[in-house]
Design brief:
The protein has 721 residues and is mainly beta. It has 5 domains: 182 residues, Lamin Tail domain (Immunoglobulin-like), CATH 2.60.40.1260; 79 residues; 183 residues, no CATH class; 140 residues, no CATH class; 84 residues, Immunoglobulin-like. The protein contains 5 helices and 61 strands. The strands form 16 sheets. Strands 44, 45, 46, 47, 48, 49, 50, 51, 52, 53 and 54 form an 11-stranded mixed β-sheet that branches. Strands 9-8-3-2-12-13 form a 6-stranded mixed β-sheet, with no helix packed on it. A 6-stranded mixed β-sheet has the order 16-18-21-24-28-33.
């Protein structure tokens, strides 16, 4: 039997459910003689002696006299003929009832013994004397023994008080015991937790057919023995305790469908007996919290005619580069900041390492072998030049990959001390027959969902300051399909109560984003735990918005709550001239009194983003990189964009801005008066007011006027420094 490494959510289910479950045993499919003969030819992967290893796996005295039962389980590697086997009930130390067993029991199969008046389910073995004699078989000084040709094989007689309860054998017990060992059993009284108990529940035969039709009444605590072809097709993640796939049968997880196995995958067929399917809409997803096994995982590549590189990682152990024979394959070698081609077909693909592949053939690739699971130590991360920031030189960047057959939630990854908290994922889209790429980022609770939930078989980049080690475990696994997410799967939303904003730059039918948030513990400079570097796209069609520091550029930035005079300088770039748009999303995450203004450093215009969060503009290749500034102070006058005479006046960050479309401006006079009527500034209007003229004014409200002969334009302006 296989040992559990499960860390599983707790959910208590009443024992009444088990009664209904066992009732379903009456509908179990049976194998014909030929199938039974075939079953005897393959290994159950048990280290126990073969041919005799049947154990008592469950005893239930939690019901009325007509519903108690004893369950046996075949922990052997072979199908066993039950001729000569007997099961005896023990009450207060005395043998009160004997069942003479018959027929066969397959590897991993359970059989139950009871009486013919059982109202919950029909036992496999019946003894009419069970009812008259079991009125005191109540879990106090009671139990059972199993004999083969008169020889005691398993002793489950216990002085443990499991009165009105259930005594269940641990899942990990694979060898019968002639002496009762309390550590092999778990006692439940009125209820038990089928996720946490680490004990075996009945194994139900299902198939052939669709999971949605076969398992509607079976909860996730059940172990399934697959018959024929079964396809997981339900919208919410399918769930079970363990899976058994005998030779000649198969289980398939359809694209964008999910299966959680809370214990073990037991695949006794070939790799094609357990298949995770993929197509252009996405891939299936599997989480195995216990011991994994062999299978096949398909990986879909975007239209091969685009000839675009994609970053991948192997979801199986012992994969070889021969998988991509006929394609181009490379890995990134950080010490030399370069990609290295893989030519030979016998190169081992390291678990957890990322690779770059250019597919030239069939867009569906298949990984066949032992599916990765449990704790995985990734290849060592390095920074050969010890550069603490992302620069044009790729020192410190390491290409790793998701090693699991499910997505991983980056927020659940334990980040080591010397490694930065961000992850960068390369996303490629088909734009009119041309591939357009962008780097998506996620760091400690915010960013792009494409990087938050990293897809199975996907490679990605992380950054480290120095040599460091990183490990994954099954707690980071998640079922997530992005836009194709099924009901009940994680949405990847920002952290609750987070003051987070996304600035999306759009144009040429594609877009990319810059993210920022307010955090009191953050710095205005770069913070390796809270901020994410920007890796610029090589696609000229991709508009890009980011924050540039003296050392690097950022795609996600955490800052403390700003003061009135604080400014966030935004940079915009695109390789094609034309019309673009900035969309500001997330105002509902902030206090309603928080101001957001966008200054266009090219035109001098300032917009109140709360009134208009969508900014359209034209971009030329000669435009300054720092095209926009995000202002957080109170600026008045921004609502009066151009008025009747195409004139607007506002004050921001110590400067007075005056914009007018009047044809004659050489004689314009600008005057500023306080509310007492006193003149605090008077002078001739000049073009320097277009980009803001420094005028030191105390905090107050002022009347600003433009005058020329009979022309007068006045505006009340509030000043907050």
């Amino acid at each position: 039997m296989k040992n559990s490494v499960a860390l599983i959510r707790k959910k208590t289910v009443q024992v009444l459910w088990l009664s209904a479950l066992l009732f379903s045993l009456v509908s179990l499919n049976s194998l014909n003689a030929q199938e039974l003969s075939d079953q005897a030819q393959f290994s159950m992967k048990s280290s126990s002696p073969s041919g005799e290893n049947i154990i008592i796996s469950m005893m239930d005295a939690n019901r009325t006299n007509k519903e108690n039962f004893i369950q046996i389980y075949n922990a052997d590697k072979l199908t066993i003929n039950l001729t000569g086997w007997t099961l005896v009930a023990i009450e207060d130390g005395n043998e009160i009832c004997t069942w003479t067993l018959s027929g066969t029991i397959r590897p991993g199969e359970t059989k139950t013994a009871g009486d013919n008046d059982n109202h919950v389910f029909i036992p496999n073995f019946i003894n009419t004397s069970w009812f008259p004699g079991n009125n005191k078989w109540d879990g106090t000084n009671d139990g059972a023994k199993l004999y083969h040709n008169g020889v005691l094989i398993d002793n489950a007689y216990s002085t443990t008080n499991w009165s009105a309860g259930v005594l269940i054998r641990n899942e990990n017990t694979g060898t019968a015991n002639t002496l009762f060992t309390s550590t092999e059993w778990t006692v439940f009284s009125t209820s038990f937790d089928e996720n946490q108990h680490a004990c075996r529940l009945p194994i139900i035969d299902i198939g052939p057919g669709l999971w949605s039709e076969l398992t509607v009444d079976y909860l996730h605590g059940v172990s399934y023995n697959i018959i024929g072809l079964v396809e997981v097709d339900i919208d919410t993640p399918a769930e079970c305790y363990s899976v058994y796939i005998q030779n000649g049968n198969s289980l398939q997880i359809l694209p964008n469908k999910a299966l959680t196995i809370n214990k073990n995958l037991n695949n006794y067929g070939g790799n094609d007996a357990f298949v995770i399917k993929a197509n252009s809409s996405g891939t299936g997803s599997v989480i195995i919290y216990g011991i994994s096994d062999n299978g096949t995982m398909e990986h879909y590549f975007i239209d091969t005619r685009l000839q675009s590189w994609q970053f991948i990682a192997s979801p199986i152990e012992n994969a070889k580069s021969a998988i991509y024979e006929g394609d181009y394959m490379m890995y990134y070698y950080e010490p030399q900041q370069r990609y290295v081609s893989i030519i030979a077909t016998d190169v081992a693909l390291k678990v957890g390492r990322g690779y770059s592949v250019l597919k030239r053939q069939d867009p569906i690739e298949k990984y066949e072998g032992m599916l990765n699971g449990g704790t995985i130590k990734l290849p060592t991360l390095t920074n050969s030049l010890s550069i603490p920031y992302s620069t044009a030189v790729m020192s410190g960047w390491n290409l790793i990959g998701n090693p699991y057959p499910s997505s991983i939630d980056w927020d659940k990854v334990e980040i080591p001390t010397k490694m930065h908290g961000q992850v960068s994922v390369w996303i490629v889209t088909d734009q009119d027959g041309e591939f357009v790429s962008d780097w998506k980022v996620w760091v400690k609770g915010f960013g792009d969902n494409e990087a938050h939930f990293i897809q199975p078989g996907e490679g990605f980049f992380v950054f480290t300051n120095e040599t460091e080690t990183l490990s994954f475990n099954s707690t980071i696994q998640a079922h997530y399909f992005g836009e194709n997410s099924a009901k009940g799967l994680p949405d990847g939303e920002i952290l609750e109560n987070s003051e987070v904003m996304e600035i999306k730059a759009s144009g040429n039918n594609v877009s990319s984003s810059f993210h920022f948030r307010f955090l009191d513990e953050a710095l205005f400079g770069f913070d390796s735990e809270l901020d994410a570097f920007k890796m610029l796209s090589e696609s000229p069609k991709m508009p890009q918005i980011y924050f540039k520091t003296p050392e690097t550029i950022l795609a996600a930035n955490s800052i403390p709550h700003p003061s009135e005079n604080d400014t966030l300088h935004l940079s915009f770039s695109a390789g094609i001239e034309g019309a673009y748009q900035l969309d500001f999303e997330g105002f509902a995450n902030f206090d309603y009194a928080q101001n957001f203004y966008l200054k266009d450093n090219l035109s001098g215009e300032i917009r109140n983003l709360r009134l208009n969060p969508n900014v359209k503009f034209n971009h030329k290749l000669s435009d300054p990189e720092n095209r926009f500034d995000l202002l957080f102070g109170l600026i008045s006058g921004t609502d009066d964009v151009a008025g009747q005479d195409e004139t607007s006046i506002f004050y921001a960050a110590g400067k007075m801005y005056v914009k007018t479309e009047l044809l004659q401006t050489e004689n314009l006079q600008l005057e500023i008066r306080n509310l007492l009527g006193q003149t605090v500034y008077s002078g001739k209007y000049s073009s320097e007011f277009e980009n803001g003229k420094s005028i030191a004014l105390p905090n107050a409200t002022y009347l600003v006027s433009l005058r020329e002969n009979a022309y007068l334009f006045s505006k009340k302006v509030a000043v907050f420094n």
